[in-house]
Specification:
It contains 19 helices and 37 strands. Strands 1, 2, 8, 9, 10, 11, 17 and 18 form an eight-stranded mixed beta sheet that branches. Helices cover 25% and strands 29% of the residues. With 801 residues, the protein is an alpha+beta fold. It is globular. Strand 28 and strand 29 form a beta hairpin. Helix 1 packs parallel to helix 9, helix 2 crosses helix 5 and helix 2 packs across helix 9. The structure holds flavin-adenine dinucleotide (FAD). Flavin-adenine dinucleotide binds next to helix 1, strand 12, strand 16 and helix 9.
């Protein structure tokens, strides 16, 4: 071990070795992995070794497909046999909704390039896996890219391939301490102290402690997990080929052949956490006693699905632990305020995700950004609220227990809620608010009469008419929306203006004005779809999506200048928006200030009732609208005042579902759908807000190159879909004459224009209005066509009233 490396990776499991391999492969060979014990000594050695590309989150599915395609390459490069068996696999559907979900997902996988799947009848599935009973099975999806491998050999293969490329490995050497030093990190180990520019936490079961060593509290916890392996099953012994992998979602089990026996893994509904503060340091390669009482129901399902199990003994039980984040996705990337500290932890399926995690992290460390959108696994998708142990317990437990349970897009899950509530929350609940959640905050999704229950569905729900009424009230009178779920950052100081001018690609608003502000990365890709307010008193606000708070703060922090004070004020600044033709009349009743003179995209301070509010004249609905910001202490009073003033003007409280419909009718994009960090201004139409002649700003050269080049291959277009009972929601494939030309970014019903609308990223030569297309909505092919953007009020007259 040398005294200095460019990178020290802590942890010799499948994730740490994959990070090491990818760093070396991409050109950083002054890298060293330090492992407490032996390779794979954490979760990795006792994993079931199953690999499959399918995942309900399309981004994770793409990551898994990359990992699987990489495995044989790594094995060959290392010269290590990983016992890779690509048997293919089946996912079973045991309810009509699940079957519909599987058909919908089959199409979504096509959108992300996983084409080697097929839907099949129970009879066809049975031919592929004769050992299973197909009782209750309504259909199945076959995937070629499934199989299993030997876990420890895979870890050794990654490490060996990395070593061949110049990386070092030090085993049996525990990291004891991490200290931030000017040149990076000082890593104190049992065998001496090392300094490095970058340190990677790939500590698996010990990730929590490796976070705490650097003053970071990661939202991660281990949970226990069972599988068992049977003695020889005569039916398998008699087969001339291997049985494929089978995931029985309704039965909570996954299976694969293990020699001539069957390996059955169980996602326990009655989950059990273990060592929430991280595994003990002296935890060796031991397992827990099996807890069959806890998994009785799942075992019954397994024996019903595989009747042959009645006649064979169980050879081995494995009850081990592995780690989960609140949403089950990995925690990857840099941490604000800890330069050179990188996370690669909470990887719950290291053998099928570890390759993708390694690639993503290595790209991030070397190039400063990743090829694919890393958001779904970015550690910055959580904030300080998620450090709480009870929050972690509830959310990780919920994810684990529901791993094989179907979650509907309109379903609200209870774990970790309610946590953050705007002050008027209870008053809104009394008024019928139904709640969704964003970054721990309760946000109203619609208002319903007492006793109304929304039915979980993949199609239009029974809340459809309620949302339609909220849209109608907004288009015809005035809608009131709690906008506490927007983020707000205050910027001041002598260099505030210069800094904003550098980090934003737009021209800055003049005093008393607001402006839509694209923010770009150095490579000219999007980093934000923000709004800037120049309050005219030397203070500025940046407003954006609430759930991106930590993500944006990390970016601002990394690109900060002296003389700038930046504060995230979102917990204390809240508010309501008014939108609709009567919204000005409501405000006029509450202020004697010149609110009528406030121009479109103007902003200023007004007395609204008794509240001194910061008001911006803009809306996401496409109507005349105002965003009225107040302190948290004034939130209840502001709501009361607005509701009273609007009583005879048709005011109605609305939720974010109505906002979704209203913004689609205007073809307004939103972050994570039409705007992501892998899209460019030209693709998304964000280029129209760029101030090309204002001088330097981050991403300018790359954006100019896009503008002056041949144009993007794909662009966002607005589609009208001939769908009667369901709408697109995202990632559905879009076809032209049988050729896939793109995918839906978001969709829904436009209640005012009475159309099923989708925004889609499609080939530019298909984006002309009038082009006939088809789209798979919940698995069924529907005709569709490109329409001109903004089917409601295309000239924008209503907003400028
Ligand atoms: C029963 C079971 C079945 C599973 N089946 C599958 C499956 O079929 N497919 C799949 O993909 N995944 C499966 N998993 C999950 C899989 O095991 C994990 O996702 C994976 O092992 C995580 O790898 P890791 O490298 O992040 O963590 P770990 O394997 O826990 O590795 C972390 C390493 O860091 C080292 N370390 C920690 N702290 C220090 C320190 N201070 N100094 C030095 N070294 C340190 C540890 O010794 C350890 O070796 C299963 C898990 C279980 C429990």
């Amino acid at each position: 071990m040398k005294s200095h490396y460019r990178v020290v990776v802590i942890g010799g499991g499948v994730v740490g070795t994959s990070v090491l391999y990818h760093l070396a492969k991409f050109g950083w060979s002054d890298v060293c992995l330090i492992e407490r014990s032996e390779f794979a000594a954490g979760s990795s050695w006792h994993a079931a070794g199953g690999i499959h590309a399918l995942n309900a989150d399309p981004n994770m599915a793409a990551l898994q497909a990359y990992t699987i395609d990489l495995l044989s390459e790594v094995s060959q490069e290392a010269g290590v046999d990983i016992n890779l068996h690509m048997t293919g696999g089946l996912t079973l559907a045991g309810t009509p909704d699940r079957w519909e979900w599987l058909q919908a997902n089959y199409r979504i996988f096509q959108s992300i390039g996983i084409d080697d799947c097929a839907l099949m009848s129970p009879e066809e599935a049975k031919k592929r896996a004769p050992l299973m009973s197909t009782d209750g099975v309504l259909g199945a999806m076959w995937a070629d890219r499934e199989g299993y491998l030997d876990t420890t050999s895979t870890v050794v293969a990654y490490a060996t391939a990395a070593r061949k490329r110049g990386a070092e490995v030090v085993l049996r050497n525990r990291v004891l301490e991490l200290n931030q030093v000017p040149e990076g990190w000082q890593v104190v180990t049992e065998k001496g102290t090392v300094t490095c520019e970058h340190v990677v936490n790939a500590g698996g079961l010990w990730a929590k402690q490796l976070g705490r060593m650097a003053g970071i509290e990661l939202p991660v916890s281990p949970l226990k997990h069972h599988y068992f392996v049977t003695d020889t099953v005569p039916e398998l012994d008699a087969m001339d080929r291997e049985m494929p992998m089978v995931v029985d979602l309704e039965g909570y089990t996954y299976t694969r052949q293990d020699q001539k026996g069957l390996l059955v893994g169980i996602y326990e509904v009655e989950h059990e956490h273990w060592a929430m503060d991280g595994a003990p340091w002296d935890y060796g390669m031991e397992l827990f006693q099996e807890q069959t009482d806890r998994i009785e129901n799942e075992l019954i399902c397994a024996f019903e699905r595989y009747p042959a199990l009645e006649n064979v003994g169980i050879k081995t039980w494995v009850n081990g632990a592995f780690t989960f984040s609140p949403d089950g996705n990995p925690l990857v990337g840099p941490v604000r305020g800890k330069p050179g500290y990188w996370c690669a932890c909470a990887v719950m399926a290291g053998f099928l995700q570890g390759g993708g995690v390694g690639k993503t992290l290595a790209e991030w460390m070397i190039h400063g950004e990743t090829e694919a959108d890393a958001w779904p696994m970015d550690v910055a998708r959580y904030g300080a609220y998620a450090e709480n142990k009870e929050y972690i317990r509830q959310t990780t437990g919920q994810f684990y227990s529901r791993r094989f349970v179907m979650t509907y897009p309109n379903e609200q899950l209870p774990a970790g809620r309610p946590l953050k509530m705007a002050p008027a929350h209870d008053a809104m609940t009394k008024a019928g608010a139904r709640w969704g959640e964003s970054w721990g905050l309760e946000v109203p999704i619609y208002f319903a009469p007492e006793g109304f229950e929304e039915t979980p569905t993949l199609k239009r729900s029974n809340a459809f008419d309620l949302v339609a009424e909220e849209v109608k009230a907004t288009r015809e009178a005035v809608g009131l929306l709690d906008i506490s779920g927007f983020s707000r950052y205050e910027v001041s100081g002598p260099n505030a203006e210069a800094w904003l001018d550098r980090v934003m690609a737009c021209a800055l608003p003049k005093p008393g004005r607001a402006k839509l502000a694209p923010m770009l990365s150095d490579s000219g890709r999007l980093k934000g779809d923000l709004t800037i307010f120049n309050w005219g008193d030397g203070s500025w606000w940046i407003m954006g999506s609430y759930y991106l708070r930590e993500w944006h703060m990390r970016w601002f922090h990394d690109h900060m200048d002296p003389g700038v004070h930046l504060t995230d004020i979102s917990d204390n600044a809240v508010g309501f928006s008014l939108s609709g033709p009567n919204s000005r009349k409501v405000l006029e009743k509450l202020t004697d200030g010149p609110i009528a003179d406030l121009p479109f995209m103007g902003c200023g301070t007004f007395d609204i009732g008794m509240i001194r509010a910061r008001v911006g004249r803009l809306s996401v609905t496409g109507e005349l609208g105002y965003e009225i910001n107040c302190t948290a202490a004034e939130h209840i009073a502001l709501r009361r005042a607005l509701l009273e003033a609007g009583a005879d003007l048709g005011i109605r409280e609305i939720g974010y579902n109505a906002l979704g419909s209203l913004r689609l009718e205007k073809s307004f994009g939103i972050w994570s759908k039409e705007f992501t960090q892998i899209y460019t201004p030209g693709q998304t139409g964000m280029d129209r807000w760029i101030a090309w002649d204002k001088g330097e700003f981050i991403g300018r050269n790359a954006a100019l190159a896009e503008r002056d080049g041949n144009g993007p291959a794909q662009v966002i277009a607005t589609l009208e879909i001939d769908a009667q009972d369901a709408d697109a929601s995202g990632y559905e494939p879009v076809w032209r004459d049988g050729k896939r030309v793109g995918f839906v970014t978001s969709g829904g019903y436009g209640h005012h224009v009475q159309k099923s609308i989708a925004l889609a990223m499609i080939d530019r030569d298909c984006a002309e209005a009038g082009t006939d297309l088809t789209v798979h909505v919940v698995g069924a092919e529907r005709t569709a066509r490109v329409i001109a953007a903004s089917p409601y009020d295309p000239t924008g007259k209503a907003m400028r009233l």
